[in-house]
Design brief:
Elements (H helix, E strand, L loop, with lengths): L1 H11 L6 H5 L3 E7 L13 E6 L2 E6 L5 H8 L8 E3 L5 H4 L2 H5 L10 E6 L8 H9 L27 E6 L7 E6 L2 E8 L6 E8 L2 E5 L9 H6 L4 E5 L14 H11 L3 E5 L6 H9 L5 E4 L5 E3 L2
Helix pairs in contact: 8-9
């Protein structure tokens, strides 16, 4: 209980953590958005940065408010090696157009982006991007350069996206990035009928797993997260409740304990009795725990 009290105090007063704190670590995880889909005056929607030394190398999701938080983090778009999208609910992707607008002024080379395949409810990553940015039919036609369209003088545009898709019907993890000492694998996770992905990053002998939204019913996720230094899981529903698309606090704790993770960070926090949710989680999980907050930075040990 003492450990939890200290962590909560840090989380509640960590909104002004500077980018220098993250950049000073060999490997660090920064939360840009620790909230979920509902309006929250203290929490942007889901987004994370993985820092390697002084550079933010991987951006995971870009929910509402994350565009501002990215600026506050002092990360640079030009430094990114990969954008990884977990799924296409608005609280995970709604700030992507704002993030890409005028990006050619900040970055010249293409930007790798990965996301899930689709189904009858949700488009695949290429279709999703096309519906947003196609130069002739997209919602943001001014970002047509992100889809390989020609630049329009005086309009602006977006950096070219190099998209790759993960087949969510595949049961085993898929390698989606392997370059410059950083390896990223993806695993399909159950989020109702919405195709969704979790990601595991290995870099400089450290690992971080981003669980994203899931109900926790895929036993392969425990193996996917096993032994990771940091596991980020979403605490989206209250203690004593169940939901077909989100794991309960008890399930979050059980997964983290079974996976033997070095530290569990809970994020995507809903508006409910947080103390009760943490207490339920800790009935199963006995390891190091951090309650996430916007701009919070955690060194990966």
């Amino acid at each position: 209980m003492i450990r939890y009290s200290i962590v909560c105090f840090f989380a509640l007063f960590s909104f002004n953590v500077s980018a220098e704190t993250c950049a000073a670590n060999p490997v660090a995880l920064q939360i840009l958005g620790s909230g979920g889909p509902t309006i929250n005056k203290d929490r942007a929607s889901t987004s994370y940065l993985l820092w390697v030394g002084p550079q933010a190398k991987m951006l995971v999701d870009m929910g509402g408010g994350a565009f501002l938080r990215f600026g506050q983090s002092e990360a640079k778009l030009a430094d990114l090696s990969l954008i990884a999208l977990s799924h296409f609910h608005p609280d995970h992707v709604s700030d992507l157009p704002a993030f890409l607008w005028l990006s050619p002024y900040l970055r010249k080379e293409s930007l790798p982006i990965v996301g899930p395949s689709g189904n009858d409810l949700v488009p695949s990553l290429p279709v999703f991007l096309s519906r947003l940015f196609d130069a002739k039919s997209g919602a943001f036609q001014v970002l047509g350069t992100s889809m390989g369209g020609p630049p329009v003088p005086g309009v602006g545009g977006g950096v070219l996206l190099d998209a790759s898709v993960v087949d969510v019907t595949k049961a085993e993890p898929s390698k989606v990035y392997d370059k410059d000492g950083m390896t990223v694998t993806a695993l399909a996770i159950p989020h109702g009928r919405i195709p969704a992905l979790a990601y595991r990053v290995e870099v400089k002998g450290k690992s971080v797993v981003f669980s994203s939204d899931q109900n926790g019913s895929n036993p392969k996720f425990v193996d996917f997260a096993r032994g990771t230094n940091v596991l980020v899981m979403h605490l989206a529903i209250a203690a004593g409740t169940t939901n077909p698309i989100h794991a309960s606090p008890a399930v979050v704790g059980k997964i983290a304990q079974e996976a033997g993770v070095g530290r569990l960070i809970v994020s995507h926090i809903g508006q409910f009795d947080l103390d009760a949710a943490i207490a339920e989680l800790k009935q199963s999980y006995k390891g190091a725990l951090t309650v996430g907050a916007d701009l919070q930075c955690t060194q990966v040990n």
